[in-house]
Design brief:
The chain has 11 helices and 12 strands. It has 333 residues and is α/β, with parallel strands linked by helices.
């Protein structure tokens, strides 16, 4: 979640949503639903006009209908990110029964979150409100840090957010979910056998592995997610809108991305692996520290589980030779 200077929305101001939907009937239906939810909607039927209009109106969020066969929404997202960085939340609107569209957006959609098209539009409005509140909180905290009135937000080694700031964001998401409904998940992870790795290769290589872990996590999560380093060897992620039934897929995706990565130590290319654990609200209740501790406990429990059990849950552990050095690895988002 990169930061660019932009004023935080003032209370009482309608957030502006740029809605790009080529089907006129669906465009009008979604526009009406979002208007009822308190958004100011700028409707558009042409994807090629999205970038010029984006530069003119500078919306608070963008919703794009992702449809076969050309999936123009994905190319539009690339262009909008070049213009607006990551301070403007983006969402794909996808027909819930179109499995091809869901798979395409998950695999090639630039890690942008997906929302199913429904008759009420409740989930779309909920996710928009959640992402805008999270973005505003980050920008307020960043402005405070620049002015010297807030705590440092980032871990000095990895550049990720630190534990206190993650807990503050979990608290914000918790209050939003309790007031408006909805779900979110907290995921904890750590590189496998890090202490043995440090003992064998030394602290400099250990730090290199931690930085690499941070890079891969940042490339794997969605734009609306938050990644933080919460202890010497442990990381955590806040995933707004992620329900318990979606967690196995999320954990498998994170683990699969790690299994693609290798880095070289003393002439040997080692494949990294992760210990992973997660909790989901409202299945798990508590204050932010309890939710984070619950995810860490699940991760540590998985760390002690047999390998076969980890593989069945989508959190496999494997190390082998062959591959690229750390500095040479680049993974597409």
């Amino acid at each position: 979640m990169a930061l660019k200077r932009k004023h935080v929305r003032r209370a009482g101001i309608q957030p502006t949503v740029l809605l790009v939907e080529p089907r006129a009937e669906d465009l009008e239906r979604t526009r009406a639903l979002l208007t009822e939810e308190g958004f100011r909607v700028v409707p558009l039927t042409r994807f090629d006009a999205a970038a010029p209009l984006f530069e003119v109106i500078r919306p608070d969020a963008v919703v794009l209908a992702a449809q076969p066969p050309d999936y123009a929404a994905v190319a539009t997202v690339r262009r909008l990110r070049q213009i607006g960085g990551s301070t403007v939340p983006l969402l794909y609107l996808v027909d819930p029964h179109d499995l091809e569209a869901w798979r395409f957006c998950v695999e090639k959609g630039q890690c942008v979150d997906l929302v199913p098209r429904t008759s009420t539009g409740a989930e779309l409005a909920l996710k928009l409100h959640a992402q805008l509140r999270l973005r505003d909180a980050v920008l307020r905290a960043a402005e405070g840090a620049d002015a010297g009135t807030a705590l440092v937000l980032h871990d000095p080694l990895t550049g990720l957010y630190n534990k206190p700031f993650l807990l503050a964001l979990i608290g914000l998401e918790l209050r939003r979910a309790e007031r408006y409904g909805g779900v979110f998940s907290v995921v904890a992870c750590s590189p496998q056998s890090l202490r043995a790795f440090r003992k064998q290769y030394g602290p400099a290589i250990e730090e290199r592995l931690l930085v690499y872990t941070a890079v891969i996590l940042g490339q794997t999560v969605r734009e609306s997610d938050v990644v933080a380093r919460v202890s010497d060897d442990e990381f955590a992620m806040l995933l707004p809108g992620t329900a318990a039934e979606a967690l196995p897929t999320v954990l498998s995706r994170i683990n699969a991305r790690f299994e693609l990565a290798r880095f070289q130590v003393e002439g040997k290319a080692l494949r990294t692996s992760l210990n992973l654990g997660a909790v989901c609200f409202p299945d798990t209740l508590g204050v932010p520290t309890q939710l984070l501790s619950g995810a860490i406990q699940e991760m540590r429990r998985a760390r002690g589980a047999p390998a076969a059990s980890r593989q069945e849950s989508g959190v496999g552990v494997r190390r082998e030779e062959g591959g690229l050095e750390l500095e040479a690895v680049t993974l597409s988002s």
